Inverse folding.
């Protein structure tokens, strides 16, 4: 695969400026360490990168491999449906579980998010079903 | 140590697909850059409100500026989640490049990817958790979110420097040759379209917490602007703030003190009789929700006039709550805000006497101000002059 080493005055200017800005953030985080708790923050920061690279992306590959056996007409809609379902579930899991609810603040997290998630997923999978039927009917292999 | 051959083959195979090519990465990168810029600037604005600097006093107008910027901050942040995942997916095979680096410049470029990826994922994760009121960590969210934003934006600037030429080439090259998508996989347009649909679904189901026409579709909003005591949401209740006894005490007095010519002391009843000014003002949270309400109260400027004070550019007013502790027990009004007659101590909300959870006996409400700075259960205005 092709590799290109970056070069030129624009690259170096941006690198210096970017390192300066990031350095300001690092210094600020350290200066504010009573609040930022660097030892804790580093764990969550590194964990964020690892969670994506070692869990989310491989999970996507596994899902892609696991859906290879599906008929061609269904493959793409099902994969998209899975991706959207996973995204919505991941994003709204904290409110579905209601971890932030407090009895003394009833106006925070006031909805039935579990029911709403199921409703949304039902709409997503109805759309997936409709797409599969439509692609079948067209009777030709989709692009 | 080379990676296993199967991994190399999978990587090279993936890189021939349009969803992993430079053009897709460039388009997603630009969209992501715009979203991060919007989030960064609106976040910076909120930080300036909460940590005021003397040389840039926050003006009270336009009254809805804060609600718009913070609604934008949170809506953009949510929509960025599918965008970031798509972008990382498009470049994921490049994580397994071999050899990992080809020189000093390349090593520095890849090194800056660490804060970029970790910071971007962290900002979105922590932001989503915060608006869900879920705090599984030990640090103080606003401080960590704010400083990591600087680190991430710095890494982003360096990344733009490294990738601008490649992105420009990928976007301008006419008829860029790409392998057709295999059956059951996506072409570039399909992939970008799917990302747009995902971002749209996320936005439509959450933006109703501040955009009224979308309210019926508000399936996942952490607030509904019409749900709460007196039809307005609450972030901190009187019970949580520990002010139930103090706020209900009949010996309550509002005091205007500090650099005044004659101190003012008013009972709740007197304050109520003085409260003639009405204004429709939003209460807007940094967490993205906002609600408009009709407030009735006494302009802070009138209270300062009663204390024999003329408002010049050197005047600042510290608004003190009955709360004994808490980061937001007091807030500061600059001279521009004090002069605005809609900056007032409200005693009524939507035509009813202020509820205890909304700050009874009186609370600050002022145009273009962060919700956490609209101090509740106010008992003292301390004037200082430069």
């Amino acid at each position: 695969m092709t590799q290109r080493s970056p070069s030129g005055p624009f690259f170096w200017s941006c690198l210096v400026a970017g390192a300066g800005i990031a350095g300001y953030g690092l210094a600020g985080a350290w200066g504010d360490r009573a609040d930022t708790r660097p030892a804790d923050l580093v764990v969550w920061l590194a964990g964020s990168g690892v969670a994506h690279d070692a869990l989310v992306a491989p999970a996507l590959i596994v899902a892609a491999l696991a859906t290879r056996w599906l008929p061609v007409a269904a493959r793409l809609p099902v994969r998209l449906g899975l991706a959207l379902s996973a995204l919505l579930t991941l994003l709204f899991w904290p409110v579905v579980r209601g971890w932030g609810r407090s009895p003394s603040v009833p106006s925070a997290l006031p909805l039935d998010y579990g029911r709403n998630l199921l409703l949304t997923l039902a709409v997503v999978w109805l759309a997936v079903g409709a797409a599969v039927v439509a692609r079948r009917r067209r009777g030709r292999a989709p692009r | 140590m080379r990676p296993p051959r199967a991994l190399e083959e999978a990587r090279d195979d993936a890189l021939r697909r349009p969803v992993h090519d430079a053009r897709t990465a460039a388009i997603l990168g630009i969209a992501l850059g715009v979203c991060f810029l919007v989030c960064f600037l609106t976040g910076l604005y909120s930080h300036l409100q909460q940590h005021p600097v003397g040389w840039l006093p926050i003006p009270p107008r336009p009254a809805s500026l804060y609600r718009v910027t913070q609604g934008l901050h949170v809506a953009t942040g949510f929509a960025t989640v599918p965008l970031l995942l798509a972008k990382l997916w498009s470049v994921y095979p490049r994580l397994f490049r071999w050899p990992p680096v080809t020189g000093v410049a390349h090593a520095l470029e890849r090194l800056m990817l660490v804060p970029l990826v970790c910071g971007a994922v962290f900002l979105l994760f922590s932001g989503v958790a915060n608006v869900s009121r879920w705090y599984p960590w030990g640090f103080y969210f606003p401080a960590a979110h704010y400083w990591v934003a600087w680190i991430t934006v710095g890494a982003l600037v360096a990344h733009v420097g490294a990738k601008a030429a490649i992105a420009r080439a990928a976007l301008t090259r006419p008829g860029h040759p790409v392998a057709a998508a295999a059956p059951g996989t996506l072409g570039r347009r399909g992939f970008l379209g799917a990302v747009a649909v995902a971002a749209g679904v996320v936005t439509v189901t959450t933006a109703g917490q501040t955009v009224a026409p979308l309210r019926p579709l508000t399936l996942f909003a952490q607030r509904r602007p019409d749900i709460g005591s007196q039809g307005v949401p609450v972030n901190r209740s009187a019970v949580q703030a520990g002010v139930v006894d103090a706020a209900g005490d009949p010996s309550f007095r509002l005091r205007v003190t500090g650099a005044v010519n004659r101190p003012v002391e008013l009972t709740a009843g007197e304050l109520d009789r003085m409260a003639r000014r009405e204004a429709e003002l939003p209460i807007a949270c940094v967490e993205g929700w906002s609600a408009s309400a009709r407030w009735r109260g006494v302009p802070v400027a009138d209270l300062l006039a009663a204390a024999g004070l003329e408002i010049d550019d050197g005047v600042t007013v510290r608004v003190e709550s009955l709360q004994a502790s808490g980061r937001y027990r007091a807030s500061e009004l600059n001279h521009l805000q004090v002069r605005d007659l809609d900056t007032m101590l409200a005693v009524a909300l939507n035509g009813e006497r202020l509820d205890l959870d909304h700050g009874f006996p009186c609370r600050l409400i002022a145009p273009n101000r962060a919700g956490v700075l609209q101090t509740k259960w106010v008992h003292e205005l301390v004037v200082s002059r430069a």
Summary: The two ends of chain B are 67 Å apart (CA to CA). Chain B touches chain A through 94 residues (CB under 8 Å). The longest strand of chain B covers residues 290-299. Residues 126 and 144 of chain B are 9 Å apart (CA to CA).
